[in-house]
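New to this. Please check both lines:
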Amino acid sequence: MNWFFITLGYSGLAPKAPGTVGTIVSLPLGMLILIYFDAQTLFLASLLISIIAIKSINKYEERTGTHDDKRIVIDELAGMWFALSVAPAISVSMGEVTSFENGFLVQAILSFALFRYFDIAKPSIIGRIDREVKGGIGVMGDDIIAGFAAGISSSLIWQGWLQLQGMM
């Protein structure tokens, strides 16, 4: 069960770009939680999964001696879900998902793209956590911060777009 969990249903076993595959798997799951529940539920689910993942990753690293195995992608789920819980932060019904006016789909896509950017480029504190913090906290920490950065950036871009539209 531990391997199934930390590889996010074995999506981390993808031969190419397992992190991107894990993020792609995480995006629609997070969007469904936002549609059927709310941003607070998604945030709390992210927090709970992060805590469980830190313990699971610590056990895996103790057993294998491998830090931040590329097949571990539960950190992508946590980061993506944190980004989504910060960015759209709106309640929509299934029929409203594709409406451009509410920004739900735009922010979800922006959050995905920005999360992947921050997760790969690892600017500032994200890179520092990745390099210097060991164990499950190190594996999860950089993605959690990247998720928050992506969600905030997505919100700022969307709000900027709305302000621009109001000026015209």
In short: The mean pLDDT is 93. The CA atoms of residues 23 and 76 lie 5 Å apart. The longest helix spans residues 135-167. The chain has one domain: 17-167.
